[in-house]
Amino acid sequence: MNDKRVNQYLILPEAGQRKDTKLAVEHSEEQIADYLKQGYVIVNQADFNKLIGNGDGEYLIADDGRVYPKPAPTDEELLAAAKPAKIAELKAERDAREVEPITYNGNSYDYDDKARERINAAIIALDVQGADASIDWTTADNADVKVTANDLRMVIASVAQRSNALHVAYRAAKDKVEAATTVAEVDAVTLNL
User: What are phi and psi of 14, to 5 degrees?
Assistant: First the structure.
C-alpha cells in the first residue's frame, strides 16, 4: 500500500472520458511512474467524484489530467436531438388523434381498439339479419341510437378520411422538421389539419 497516494486515482483519459481507472494507493511509486509514461494522469478524490457523476454537473477529463465541466451542447447538437424528438411527438399526436371519438350523423362514436372490434362484429351481425336490420348503439357520449350496418360502415369511412388527413398532415409536419435549421423552427412545427 502506497500511503502517499491515498485518495488519488490513476486515470487514462480518452476523448474526455475515463478509458481506465486505478487506485493509486495500490501501486508503488515506480509503477505509478510507468503508468504516467503510458498516458495515465493522477487526479484527487474531488476530481474523481466529478468524473463519476458525483459532482454538480457533468465533467470531462483532458489528456493532461485537468477536469473541466462538460461544455454546453452546440446548436448543431441541440438541433440533431430536437428533430427526432419532435418527429416522435408528432407521430404520437397523430396516433392518439386517430383513435379519438368520431362524429357521424350528429352522433359521437368511440373508435379505440375495443370499439373497432364491436363495430366490425355489429356490421357482420346486421348483414346476416338483412338490409333493414338495426340495433341500439351506445355512443361515446352515452346516448342510445339505432344504427344499421351502413351507419357503422359510414363511421369507419369517416375514420378513414380523418386518418388520411392526419397522415397527410404528419408527413407535411415531418418534412418541415427535417428542413428546419434551428431548434426554434423545430419547436414551431405543429400537426395542422
Answer: -150, 120
State mean pLDDT over 106-125.
96
Whole-number Å distance between alpha carbons of 137 and 129: 16
* DSSP label of 24: G
Using the structure block, give the residue that is written with the C-alpha cell 388527413.
Answer: 165
Residues linked to residue 103 through DSSP beta bridges, in sequence order: 108
Instruction: Calculate the CA dihedral of residues 96, 98, 101, 104 and round it to 10 degrees.
Output: 160
CA 62 from chain center: how many Å?
32
What's the chain's length in residues?
193
Segment 158-172, tens digit of pLDDT? 999 999 999 999 999
Q: Which three cell numbers stand for residue 145?
A: 341510437
Give percent of the chain above pLDDT 90.
69
Compute CA distances 92 → 101, 115, 132, whole Å.
17, 20, 40
pLDDT tier, 54 (very low <50, low <70, confident <90, very high otherwise): low
* Rounded CA separation 184/18 (Å): 35
Nearest Cα neighbor of 25 from 46, 41, 4 is 4
What are 138's strand-pairing partners? 144
| pLDDT reported for residue 55 | 65
pTM of the predicted protein model: 0.67
Give which of 73, 64, 140, 66 is closest to 103, Cα–Cα. 140
d(CA 127, CA 133): 8
